[in-house]
Design goal:
652 residues; alpha/beta; Rossmann fold; Arc Repressor Mutant, subunit A
Length: 652
């Protein structure tokens, strides 16, 4: 291909970013300004013009969808390349890949397993109960948040070095953290934040390993830089070294994940830590009308700590932004529903419409009104395929057969399907495990061999142990393909029988289809197994699911109105967008009113919402709202409404 013909499709600023000879490049990419096009064409330029080997290039992003899109576009321009040539991956995918190769240096077992968010919660629930803590005060979700925040930092106070003068509640959280780490280390489990931290520490502590990857990845490209946390930024600094070429692409005005560790300050750190940085600002927007962009610019200018940019477009002025003051939330929901009815009559495509809100609880009345109006809708990011019970059950068996130290998987399968192992038996096994620092599986062996449990439960436990031993032997020595292994396991453990007993249940067909879909997926995966990695195919498949399908939604393309939180809307675009609940205390929320930095993040969230709209934007607020079952008068509309230019608005 003629790469110079590709440049003709880029505007001047995009061309500047793609063809720059500078070692360090910061591309400040405004919303809808074509950042993916820049990244893809930069990869092509590096290969075809600068003559870099494909294996010298790595592109890192945050979502599997973005990585897949980037990979497909590069292939469409250059052609199919070898699988291991260009690494285009998420941070977690890259970390997993490195740790699989260097598991010994990372102090991990070869068959370590990735703990997804659901399993992390279940493990913490079990742990908190075993510590006899108040589950209301020390909930699993709060514990997970505490642990994740700790792991998102380069350094924290190790739990075993607790100062006795520290806050008593903090000491309990540290105890939970330490116990959680002990269980994960004992069971060979690694959560998502641990993946990143271990990869960073691996590079930090082993200069020879770091040097190898620095010499290989001469060109590093990073997408969505505004979402990086402290560990990710530090890891990037190590990988880039002193001689590598680094391009980071992001928009500080779209940094909305501070609550999970993202640091918008990383833009400032990058400019301080790297010398001679070329800054390219992409301001031409290819998504929205000029009215929508004028409103977005006016809003975000109220933030102080930002890299200044001013979005513009060649598109027409377009429609004014509609503002609706509802009497109450039911009136607001009716207003939105009626507008969607009118849209369907005029345009037909409901999937081009989205209703955005700050909090999940705001969707209930919208859902109710859409049902009354017979308007199909979808909760974007709702129940995901790999979160469905029947799929979780199968995956738990697969995980446990590969690794009997996985206590979380053990707890899920021990009595699924019902095999007569009651709660008292499980509690006894758990007690012996805690007393003797054993995995639940080894505790089961101990309890069974010592005949501590009698009667029916003892027989049931022995059958379970025999079943797992048999399956493990069969899978480790089999010549069966991956999907045949999975079919064999499902049949052997009797998972289908759970649902066959309720064949008339409304969910029966859906559950069976989900099981068949998992088997079909494993069959497709057979052809893509990485022969270069000396890992059992089943383990590869489990790692693939954990890393590549976190947050996957299988119904994203149905013709229905999309309902979602503003956080979920990032990266998406819709012809018509409604942002509801724009009231002080709701959006921005009450917590943000106490902190300038939190308020600025809320404003960035509003900016993200506005810039999702291509042609029509409608915002609404209510004079009264039920909060925790009590109706109260909302004192004022959100300050964000008042920060929009009056000449961009029309009052409904």
């Amino acid at each position: 291909m003629n790469v110079y013909s590709v440049l003709d499709t880029l505007n001047d600023k995009q061309q500047e970013a793609v063809t720059s000879n500078d070692k360090n490049i910061l591309v400040v990419s405004g919303a809808g300004s074509g950042k993916t096009r820049v990244l893809v064409n930069r990869i092509v330029w590096l290969q075809l013009v600068k003559k870099y080997a494909p294996s010298s290039i790595i592109a890192i992003t945050f979502t599997n969808k973005a990585a897949s899109v980037m990979r497909d576009r590069v292939q469409s321009l250059i052609g199919i390349q070898k699988k291991n040539d260009i690494w285009i991956s998420t941070f977690h995918g890259l970390a997993n890949r490195l740790l699989r190769v260097h598991y010994v240096d990372a102090n991990l077992p070869k068959d370590f397993q990735i703990l997804d968010h659901g399993d992390q919660i279940r493990l913490l629930k079990q742990l908190i109960r075993s510590l006899n803590l108040n589950e209301n005060k020390y909930s699993a979700h709060r514990a997970m948040h505490y642990i994740n925040i700790k792991k998102n930092r380069i350094s924290d106070i190790p739990p075993h070095n607790i100062n006795i003068n520290r806050d008593a509640i903090e000491m309990v959280w540290c105890q939970i953290y330490q116990s959680y780490k002990d269980i994960c280390n004992r069971s060979g489990l690694v959560d998502f934040n641990e993946l990143l931290k271990r990869a960073y520490i691996l590079c930090l502590n082993y200069p020879n390993i770091l040097r190898y990857y620095q010499q290989r990845f001469i060109n590093i490209l990073v997408d969505e830089f505004q979402d990086t946390n402290q560990v990710q930024y530090a890891w990037l600094r190590l990988l880039s070294g002193n001689n590598n070429n680094l391009m980071i692409v992001g928009d500080d005005d779209q940094s909305i994940y501070g609550w999970r560790g993202a640091q918008v300050e990383n833009f400032r750190r990058f400019l301080e830590d790297f010398s001679h940085v070329r800054i390219v600002i992409l301001e031409q927007n290819y998504r929205s009308t000029s009215t929508i962009l004028k409103a977005a610019n006016a809003l975000i200018c109220k933030n102080n700590m930002r890299l200044k940019k001013n979005l513009w477009t060649l598109e027409d002025k377009g429609n004014a932004i509609s503002v609706y003051c509802a009497v109450n939330v039911a009136d607001e929901a009716l207003f939105v529903a009626n507008n969607l009815v009118n849209w369907r009559e005029r345009h037909g495509d409901l999937n081009k419409c989205a209703v955005l809100y700050r909090n999940n609880f705001q969707s209930r009345l919208i859902e109710e009104m859409l049902l009354k109006k017979k308007i199909p809708y979808q909760i974007y990011g709702g129940m995901q395929f790999f979160e469905r019970k029947e799929i979780k059950d199968i995956l738990a068996y697969l995980k446990f057969i590969v690794n009997q130290s996985n206590d979380t998987a053990y707890m899920r399968i021990i009595n699924t399907p019902n095999r007569g192992i009651g709660q008292s038996t499980v509690e006894m096994i758990n007690t012996y495990a805690n007393l003797n620092h054993l995995s639940l599986w080894n505790s089961s062996l101990y309890v069974s061999n010592k005949k501590i449990i009698k009667g029916g439960p003892a027989i049931a436990l022995k059958k379970f142990i025999t079943l797992i031993d048999s399956l493990k032997k069969q899978i480790l020595t089999t010549t069966l393909s991956l999907h045949e292994q999975i079919c064999y396991i499902i049949k052997s453990v009797g998972l289908r029988s759970i649902y066959d007993k309720n064949i008339s249940a409304p969910t029966y067909r859906e559950r069976m289809q989900n099981i068949e879909e998992l088997i079909a997926m494993s069959k497709q995966y057979d052809d893509s197994l990485e022969s270069t990695i000396n890992i059992n195919p089943l383990q590869q498949f489990l790692s693939y699911i954990s890393v590549e399908f976190e947050g996957h939604s299988s119904d994203a393309y149905s013709d229905a109105v999309q309902l979602m939180t503003l956080h979920s809307a990032k990266g998406l675009e819709f012809s018509q967008v409604f942002i509801i609940g724009l009231e002080e205390g709701i959006f921005p929320n009450y917590i943000s009113l106490t902190s300038q930095s939190l308020l600025e993040e809320e404003r960035r969230l509003m900016y993200v919402g506005i810039t999702r709209a291509m042609h029509k934007l409608t915002i609404s607020y209510s004079e009264t709202r039920y909060i925790y079952g009590k109706e109260r008068v909302v004192q004022s509309p959100s300050r964000f409404v008042n920060e929009l230019p009056i000449d961009c608005l029309e009052i409904c």
